[in-house]
Specification:
Vanillyl-alcohol Oxidase, Chain A, domain 3; Uridine Diphospho-n-acetylenolpyruvylglucosamine Reductase, domain 2; 18 strands; 36% helix; Uridine Diphospho-n-acetylenolpyruvylglucosamine Reductase, domain 3; 464 residues; alpha+beta; 5-stranded antiparallel β-sheet; 3 domains; 7-stranded antiparallel β-sheet
């Protein structure tokens, strides 16, 4: 980047909020995926107006800009593929407005997801989406990826709670999308287009989210199974019985043992699979729903059904699930985490398919995830220095995605496409679907400068 361009960035953000030294670029060259590309500069905005100035500068100078929250994304969405400027949003973390009467909260995009609940709880409210990265991921990143979480089965995902947002468009214009009203059909559903757009269409700086009342009571249980198939079938049976647990998490034997090696959470090492299940709501209703859950799981090769007798027991049960990814990461030098998703009724087919793929390619795989909404996280435990193992892993991942598509599922339930799943998106959407996305991107960002190269290539990129 030219000296004059660096100086202009410093004029916008200040010298202490503009980085361009080599060692600083390394720190912002990666996220939680397996791709690393160094930017040419890193900036830290504190206002929407600064971001607007940045985009006007970027369009004038034809410099790519990659938005970034805390860098916890798993698909390469915040990796600066075309170098340029990385725009780090984590200093924009103010709570703009808290409106308990209307169950709304407006926050800046850099606020950590977990920071919302302590504020909301003062009025007996909570924010339902709770991704595994809830302690450090930002609201802007959650919206950009349409993050889910452990409560997705009953409460939905990020898109279900976004009411309004302030956005800086690629050429610097500032717009307000959506509305705080319960009903709003004045114009296109533009906020819906931005949720899950992976920072390719605009930069969200403020987001208004809806909140819900904290449930009166919750019942928690650990179901221990003798077989993977039994656990998978139990999920479908519970939903078919008319029960919607707030949480239903799946862990296989490999994941259980990795967790126990990492941190003793009291999980049974000899179980083939477990389900962590929670019902919530009015006390009698939550208890009655858990009774129905128990009746259904006992029909499916279960060994034990244990209800938590205290909040401490409940917290210990769920502590294992919260550290599952870190635990699996400690087993081998590297891991490749996927999030293929199917309808709940096809979960047994998906679990069987994953285990067959692992056997076929002689790979170590741990399976955990949000079984209640069909969102599994098959985790390939590998050593990336082993070229033969990596070649087998690439074939296995391709078959995994094809399996999800064949089962009428999706290649990504919550991690996004980014760079990691980009080669597989056309199989999911078809050529016409990709062209539609390209046309939308061209409308918003005709020079392809905002987070370029993610999700899909633009036609002009393919000729280079």
């Amino acid at each position: 980047m030219k000296k004059s361009q660096i100086e202009e960035l410093q004029a916008i953000f200040g010298t202490t909020n503009t980085l361009f030294e080599k060692e600083d670029m390394i720190a912002y060259s990666y996220d939680a995926s397996h791709v690393e590309i160094e930017p040419e500069a890193v900036v830290f905005p504190s206002t929407t107006e600064q971001i607007s100035q940045l985009m006007r500068f970027a369009y004038r100078e034809h410099i790519p800009v990659t938005p970034r929250g805390q860098g916890s994304g798993l698909s390469g969405g915040s990796v600066p593929l075309k170098k340029g400027v990385v725009l780090v949003m984590d200093r924009m973390k103010r709570i703009i407005d808290f409106d308990p009467a209307n169950r709304l909260i407006t926050v800046e995009a850099g606020l950590t997801t977990a920071d919302i609940d302590p504020i909301a709880a003062q009025a007996g409210l909570f924010y339902p989406p709770d991704p595994g990265s809830v302690g450090f991921s930002t609201i802007g990143g959650n919206v950009a990826e349409n993050a889910g979480g452990l409560r997705g089965l009953k409460y939905g995902v990020t898109k279900d709670y976004v009411k309004m947002m302030k956005v800086v468009l690629p050429q610097g214009d500032i717009v307000i999308l959506g509305n705080k009203c319960v009903k709003h059909v004045a114009g296109f559903n533009m906020e819906g287009i931005f949720v899950g757009s992976e920072g390719m269409l605009g930069i969200m700086t403020e987001v208004t989210l809806s909140l819900l009342p904290i449930p009166e009571h919750r019942e928690s249980a650990l179901a221990i199974f003798n077989s993977l198939d039994g656990a998978a079938k139990a999920v479908s049976a519970i939903i078919a019985a008319g029960v919607t647990p707030s949480t239903m998490e799946f862990m296989d034997n490999a994941t259980i043992n990795a967790i126990q090696n990492f941190k003793d959470c009291g999980l049974p090492r000899d179980a083939e699979a477990v389900l962590l299940i929670e019902t919530d709501g009015e006390k009698n209703s939550a208890i009655a729903e858990m009774a129905k859950v128990e009746a259904e799981v006992r029909k499916n090769d279960i060994r034990e059904f244990a209800r938590a007798k205290s909040s401490e027991e409940r917290d210990k049960m769920f502590a294992g699930r919260r550290v599952a990814l870190n635990a699996l990461a400690s087993v081998r030098p590297n891991l490749i985490l996927e999030d293929a998703t199917v309808m709940r009724s096809k979960l047994p087919d998906m679990v069987r398919g994953i285990t067959d793929i692992a056997k076929k390619y002689q790979l170590q795989v741990g399976i955990f995830g949000h079984a209640g909404d069909g969102n599994l996280h098959p985790t390939f435990l590998v050593d990336m220095r082993d070229k033969d193992e990596m070649a087998r892993t690439e074939k296995a991942v391709a078959e995994l995605f094809q399996l999800a598509i064949d089962l009428d599922g999706t290649i990504s339930g919550e991690h996004g496409i980014g760079l990691e799943k980009k080669p597989f998106l056309e199989k999911q959407l078809g050529g016409a679907g990709i062209r539609l996305l390209q046309n939308i991107k061209k409308t918003f960002d005709p020079e392809n400068l905002l987070n370029p190269g993610k999700m899909f290539d633009m036609p002009e990129d393919r000729t280079v």
